[in-house]
Specification:
The protein is of the alpha+beta class. Helices cover about 25% and strands about 25% of the residues. The strands form two sheets. It has a seven-stranded antiparallel sheet with strand order 9-10-12-11-8-1-13, covered by helices on one side. The protein has a six-stranded antiparallel sheet with strand order 2-3-6-7-5-4. Bound molecules: 2-acetamido-2-deoxy-beta-D-glucopyranose (6 copies). It comes from Actinidia chinensis var. chinensis.
């Protein structure tokens, strides 16, 4: 079992943060956290100001109160150095009830596991939450984590088709309303393979495509012959399995709350570097 951590343009942020990971396969009816990242590391020796704490609580309340309208919400709370930017996004196939539950779970991690952190990214199977004192909306950053069992090899028919299948999925996902798509690959006697991809709904479509392509380029050689894998990133995530791990709900949310954000052209265009830190679990 291996977690491969590809550092991208946000090297500095990641170098200063805690990254906690665990490998748990993702099923439709369970919500597990593959990991979270706090920066600076959660501890009791440093503190954030009371107004930062108040703003964070208000931000988290606001995310929880508004996410159900469309499965995605972003907000900024506070002023000057205490301003916090945050977003929450539920996976495109997740029901509103599960979205609410996942939002609550993420808030628990934010308050409990990222105490005194100025920024946090929290991944769950059903949702992704992120906040920071730096404005990050609309900016794709390259950091991603690949989670896979490196000895769980797939049959050759599936290996031949798998990456091409996911590359196609990566190319169609940016055109979807919710920047979310699932797809099924038929591999004859080897059965079916299931793919899913999703980008942050604050990203432009073009950056969504670059984010997903970048993950396949970075991790392709490590995952191409495997039966299942998951890649979690700050801007996008991808999943590949030999069973249907997503739910059958087609689109629980209308596009009502979808707004592409057009303000920042940041460092997000930089191609992922392939510096890796490997953690053996
Ligand atoms: C911080 O202190 C609280 C209460 O004393 C404790 O429960 C928590 O585990 C501590 N956190 C860290 C990261 O040391
Ligand atoms: C989430 O938390 C809120 C406030 O604590 C609560 O009212 C709501 O029932 C929770 N939702 C779920 C699905 O757990
Ligand atoms: C989310 O749902 C699970 C299973 O129903 C429950 O155990 C958990 O307490 C819920 N979490 C929150 C924060 O409401
Ligand atoms: C948060 O920390 C608690 C222990 O303090 C741990 O049991 C829990 O698994 C952590 N949450 C996540 C999502 O890793
Ligand atoms: C990894 O895959 C191999 C081959 O299928 C399996 O024997 C092993 O139990 C798997 N390891 C874990 C931790 O799931
Ligand atoms: C989705 O529907 C298919 C066929 O109706 C069924 O076999 C499968 O178990 C369902 N999956 C989930 C996760 O509900």
């Amino acid at each position: 079992m291996k977690n491969t951590f590809h550092k991208g343009t946000n090297f500095l942020i990641l170098a200063l943060s805690t990254l906690v990971l665990s490998f748990i396969p993702c099923y439709a009816d369970t919500n597990v956290s593959p990991g979270y990242m706090c920066s600076p590391e959660a501890d009791n020796s440093t503190t954030v100001s009371d107004s930062f704490k108040t703003n964070l609580n208000n931000l988290l309340d606001s995310l929880a109160a508004n996410v159900l309208q469309s499965g995605f919400y972003k907000a900024a709370v506070g002023k000057n150095s205490n301003k916090i930017y945050g977003l929450i996004q539920c996976r495109g196939d997740v029901s509103p009830t599960n979205c609410a539950n996942c939002t609550n779970e993420s808030i628990k991690v934010a308050l409990h596991n990222c105490t005194n952190s100025k920024s946090a990214a929290i991944w769950f199977s059903w949702c992704f939450m992120r906040y920071s004192s730096e404005k990050f909306f609309g900016t794709w950053e390259g950091g991603s984590v690949g989670i896979y069992n490196q000895t769980d090899f797939d049959d050759s028919t599936a290996v031949l088709k798998g990456i091409g299948f996911m590359t196609t999925l990566a190319s169609v996902t940016p055109n979807q309303l919710l920047l979310f798509q699932t797809s099924v690959l038929d591999v004859g006697q080897s059965g079916q393979r299931f793919g899913m991809a999703q980008c942050g709904r604050d990203l432009r479509r073009s950056d969504c495509g670059k984010c997903l392509d970048g993950q396949l380029v970075s991790f392709g050689a490590s995952i191409e012959n495997l039966r299942g894998w998951e890649i979690y990133g700050l801007g996008c995530s991808m999943w590949y399995r030999d069973f249907q791990f997503y739910s059958n709900i087609s689109t629980p949310y209308s596009a009502g709350g979808r707004r592409l954000w057009h303000g920042v052209v940041g460092v997000s265009m930089t191609i992922l570097s392939t510096l890796t830190v490997q953690t053996v679990l």
